[in-house]
Amino acid sequence: MKTKNYPATMRAWAFSTAGVPEQVLSLNSSFPTPAEPEGSEVLVQISHAALSFPRKNFMEGVPSALRRNAVPEVDFSGRVVAVGVDVSEKFAPGAAVFGTVSKYGSIVSGHGTLADYILINADCIAVKPSNASFAEASCLSVLGQVAMESIRHAQVKQGDRILVNGGNDAVGTAVVQIAKDLGAHVVVICSGTKADIMKSLDVDEVNALIPVVLLL
Protein backbone atom coordinates (compact mmCIF):
# COMPACT_ATOMS: atom_id res chain seq x y z
CA MET A 1 0.00 0.00 0.00
CA LYS A 2 1.26 3.47 -0.90
CA THR A 3 2.19 5.55 2.15
CA LYS A 4 1.15 9.19 2.30
CA ASN A 5 3.91 11.67 3.09
CA TYR A 6 1.52 14.36 4.31
CA PRO A 7 -0.86 14.63 7.29
CA ALA A 8 -4.57 13.80 7.32
CA THR A 9 -5.44 17.28 8.62
CA MET A 10 -4.06 20.75 8.00
CA ARG A 11 -4.46 24.38 8.97
CA ALA A 12 -6.86 26.49 6.92
CA TRP A 13 -8.55 29.86 7.16
CA ALA A 14 -12.23 29.21 6.46
CA PHE A 15 -15.61 30.93 6.64
CA SER A 16 -19.25 29.84 6.62
CA THR A 17 -21.12 33.16 6.83
CA ALA A 18 -21.04 36.33 4.76
CA GLY A 19 -19.05 39.33 5.92
CA VAL A 20 -15.70 41.09 5.87
CA PRO A 21 -12.64 38.83 6.29
CA GLU A 22 -11.66 40.06 9.75
CA GLN A 23 -15.12 39.15 11.04
CA VAL A 24 -15.90 35.84 9.33
CA LEU A 25 -12.53 34.15 8.78
CA SER A 26 -11.33 31.73 11.44
CA LEU A 27 -8.30 29.45 11.63
CA ASN A 28 -9.19 25.76 11.64
CA SER A 29 -6.21 23.65 12.77
CA SER A 30 -7.86 20.32 11.96
CA PHE A 31 -9.21 20.99 8.47
CA PRO A 32 -9.23 17.83 6.29
CA THR A 33 -6.26 17.63 3.95
CA PRO A 34 -7.33 17.16 0.29
CA ALA A 35 -7.60 13.61 -1.05
CA GLU A 36 -4.67 11.87 -2.70
CA PRO A 37 -4.22 13.17 -6.27
CA GLU A 38 -5.48 11.13 -9.22
CA GLY A 39 -4.99 11.43 -12.98
CA SER A 40 -3.70 14.93 -13.77
CA GLU A 41 -4.09 16.24 -10.22
CA VAL A 42 -1.25 17.60 -8.08
CA LEU A 43 -1.12 18.08 -4.32
CA VAL A 44 0.90 21.15 -3.37
CA GLN A 45 2.11 22.19 0.07
CA ILE A 46 1.51 25.94 0.02
CA SER A 47 4.37 28.23 0.93
CA HIS A 48 2.72 31.59 0.20
CA ALA A 49 -0.78 32.72 -0.78
CA ALA A 50 -1.55 36.11 -2.31
CA LEU A 51 -4.38 38.26 -0.95
CA SER A 52 -6.72 39.99 -3.39
CA PHE A 53 -9.55 42.51 -3.24
CA PRO A 54 -11.98 40.36 -5.32
CA ARG A 55 -11.76 37.61 -2.70
CA LYS A 56 -13.00 40.13 -0.13
CA ASN A 57 -16.07 40.66 -2.31
CA PHE A 58 -16.40 36.88 -2.59
CA MET A 59 -16.62 36.52 1.18
CA GLU A 60 -19.21 39.27 1.40
CA GLY A 61 -21.41 38.30 -1.54
CA VAL A 62 -21.20 34.58 -2.35
CA PRO A 63 -24.55 32.75 -1.91
CA SER A 64 -24.93 31.08 1.49
CA ALA A 65 -25.29 27.64 -0.12
CA LEU A 66 -21.66 27.90 -1.22
CA ARG A 67 -20.33 29.07 2.15
CA ARG A 68 -19.73 25.70 3.77
CA ASN A 69 -16.43 26.03 5.56
CA ALA A 70 -15.03 27.62 2.41
CA VAL A 71 -11.34 28.53 2.07
CA PRO A 72 -10.76 31.80 0.15
CA GLU A 73 -8.04 33.10 -2.22
CA VAL A 74 -6.72 31.65 -5.48
CA ASP A 75 -3.05 32.51 -6.10
CA PHE A 76 -0.23 30.60 -4.41
CA SER A 77 3.27 29.14 -4.51
CA GLY A 78 4.69 26.03 -2.89
CA ARG A 79 6.16 22.57 -3.44
CA VAL A 80 4.61 19.47 -4.96
CA VAL A 81 4.17 16.63 -2.46
CA ALA A 82 2.18 14.10 -4.52
CA VAL A 83 0.95 13.68 -8.10
CA GLY A 84 -1.49 11.64 -10.15
CA VAL A 85 -0.31 9.10 -12.71
CA ASP A 86 -0.82 11.43 -15.69
CA VAL A 87 1.25 14.35 -14.40
CA SER A 88 4.42 15.50 -16.21
CA GLU A 89 7.81 14.73 -14.66
CA LYS A 90 8.51 18.46 -14.31
CA PHE A 91 5.97 18.49 -11.48
CA ALA A 92 7.54 15.60 -9.59
CA PRO A 93 7.35 15.71 -5.77
CA GLY A 94 9.66 18.43 -4.49
CA ALA A 95 9.21 20.71 -7.52
CA ALA A 96 8.77 24.40 -6.71
CA VAL A 97 5.61 25.70 -8.40
CA PHE A 98 3.13 28.57 -8.50
CA GLY A 99 -0.39 28.77 -9.83
CA THR A 100 -4.01 29.70 -9.39
CA VAL A 101 -7.14 27.81 -8.41
CA SER A 102 -9.91 27.62 -11.01
CA LYS A 103 -13.12 29.62 -10.56
CA TYR A 104 -14.95 26.35 -9.96
CA GLY A 105 -12.51 25.35 -7.27
CA SER A 106 -12.56 28.65 -5.43
CA ILE A 107 -16.24 29.59 -5.74
CA VAL A 108 -18.24 26.38 -6.12
CA SER A 109 -16.24 23.86 -4.09
CA GLY A 110 -14.71 26.38 -1.67
CA HIS A 111 -11.16 25.06 -2.12
CA GLY A 112 -8.89 28.10 -1.81
CA THR A 113 -5.26 28.75 -0.99
CA LEU A 114 -5.33 30.06 2.59
CA ALA A 115 -4.41 26.56 3.75
CA ASP A 116 -1.41 24.28 4.14
CA TYR A 117 -2.26 22.18 1.06
CA ILE A 118 -4.20 22.50 -2.20
CA LEU A 119 -5.29 19.79 -4.66
CA ILE A 120 -5.20 21.23 -8.16
CA ASN A 121 -5.05 20.20 -11.81
CA ALA A 122 -1.55 20.29 -13.30
CA ASP A 123 -2.84 22.66 -16.01
CA CYS A 124 -3.26 25.35 -13.33
CA ILE A 125 0.37 25.44 -12.15
CA ALA A 126 3.81 26.22 -13.56
CA VAL A 127 7.38 25.68 -12.42
CA LYS A 128 8.51 28.60 -10.24
CA PRO A 129 11.20 30.75 -11.90
CA SER A 130 14.53 30.21 -10.16
CA ASN A 131 15.09 33.96 -9.85
CA ALA A 132 11.76 34.56 -8.07
CA SER A 133 11.13 33.92 -4.39
CA PHE A 134 8.10 31.94 -3.26
CA ALA A 135 6.56 35.20 -2.02
CA GLU A 136 7.04 36.88 -5.41
CA ALA A 137 5.81 33.87 -7.40
CA SER A 138 2.62 33.61 -5.35
CA CYS A 139 1.47 36.95 -6.81
CA LEU A 140 2.19 36.17 -10.47
CA SER A 141 -0.65 33.96 -11.67
CA VAL A 142 -3.78 36.08 -12.16
CA LEU A 143 -2.13 39.47 -12.61
CA GLY A 144 0.53 37.90 -14.83
CA GLN A 145 -2.12 36.36 -17.08
CA VAL A 146 -4.01 39.66 -17.34
CA ALA A 147 -0.80 41.53 -18.15
CA MET A 148 0.27 39.01 -20.80
CA GLU A 149 -3.16 39.00 -22.44
CA SER A 150 -3.11 42.82 -22.55
CA ILE A 151 0.30 42.80 -24.23
CA ARG A 152 -0.75 40.11 -26.72
CA HIS A 153 -4.05 41.82 -27.53
CA ALA A 154 -2.23 45.08 -28.23
CA GLN A 155 0.41 43.15 -30.23
CA VAL A 156 3.22 45.07 -28.55
CA LYS A 157 6.60 44.65 -30.24
CA GLN A 158 10.06 46.17 -30.25
CA GLY A 159 10.05 49.88 -31.09
CA ASP A 160 6.37 50.42 -30.26
CA ARG A 161 5.41 53.40 -28.11
CA ILE A 162 2.77 52.46 -25.54
CA LEU A 163 0.87 54.26 -22.78
CA VAL A 164 0.06 52.45 -19.53
CA ASN A 165 -2.62 54.34 -17.61
CA GLY A 166 -2.33 53.34 -13.96
CA GLY A 167 1.06 51.73 -14.30
CA ASN A 168 1.60 51.66 -10.55
CA ASP A 169 -1.01 48.98 -9.75
CA ALA A 170 -0.33 45.23 -9.73
CA VAL A 171 -1.25 44.55 -13.36
CA GLY A 172 0.25 47.83 -14.54
CA THR A 173 3.70 47.11 -13.13
CA ALA A 174 3.64 43.69 -14.82
CA VAL A 175 2.61 45.23 -18.16
CA VAL A 176 5.41 47.80 -17.88
CA GLN A 177 8.08 45.16 -17.28
CA ILE A 178 6.87 42.86 -20.07
CA ALA A 179 6.67 45.76 -22.54
CA LYS A 180 10.16 46.94 -21.63
CA ASP A 181 11.49 43.41 -22.06
CA LEU A 182 9.98 43.37 -25.57
CA GLY A 183 11.81 46.60 -26.41
CA ALA A 184 8.87 49.01 -26.34
CA HIS A 185 9.04 52.69 -25.37
CA VAL A 186 6.83 52.87 -22.27
CA VAL A 187 4.97 55.96 -21.07
CA VAL A 188 3.18 55.69 -17.72
CA ILE A 189 0.49 57.72 -15.97
CA CYS A 190 0.58 57.02 -12.26
CA SER A 191 0.05 58.39 -8.77
CA GLY A 192 2.63 60.96 -7.75
CA THR A 193 3.56 58.86 -4.74
CA LYS A 194 4.47 55.94 -7.02
CA ALA A 195 6.63 57.82 -9.52
CA ASP A 196 9.89 56.57 -8.00
CA ILE A 197 8.72 52.96 -8.32
CA MET A 198 7.98 53.49 -12.01
CA LYS A 199 11.40 55.06 -12.55
CA SER A 200 13.02 52.06 -10.86
CA LEU A 201 11.43 49.88 -13.57
CA ASP A 202 13.23 51.92 -16.27
CA VAL A 203 10.01 53.46 -17.59
CA ASP A 204 10.87 55.86 -20.41
CA GLU A 205 8.41 58.60 -19.43
CA VAL A 206 6.57 59.01 -16.12
CA ASN A 207 3.58 61.34 -15.86
CA ALA A 208 2.76 61.62 -12.17
CA LEU A 209 -0.66 62.86 -11.09
CA ILE A 210 -0.81 65.35 -8.22
CA PRO A 211 -3.89 65.02 -5.95
CA VAL A 212 -6.10 68.11 -5.90
CA VAL A 213 -8.50 68.92 -3.06
CA LEU A 214 -11.55 70.96 -4.04
CA LEU A 215 -13.17 73.09 -1.36
CA LEU A 216 -16.84 73.73 -2.13
Automatic annotation (TrEMBL):
Residue ranges of coiled coil: none
Record-annotated membrane-spanning stretches: none
Pfam families, alphabetized: ADH_N
InterPro entries registered for this protein in UniProt: ADH-like_N, GroES-like_sf, NAD(P)-bd_dom_sf, YIM1/Zinc_Alcohol_DH_Fams
Domain Alcohol dehydrogenase-like N-terminal span(s) in chain numbering: 40-128
Protein name, UniProt field: Zinc alcohol
Organism: Trichoderma arundinaceum
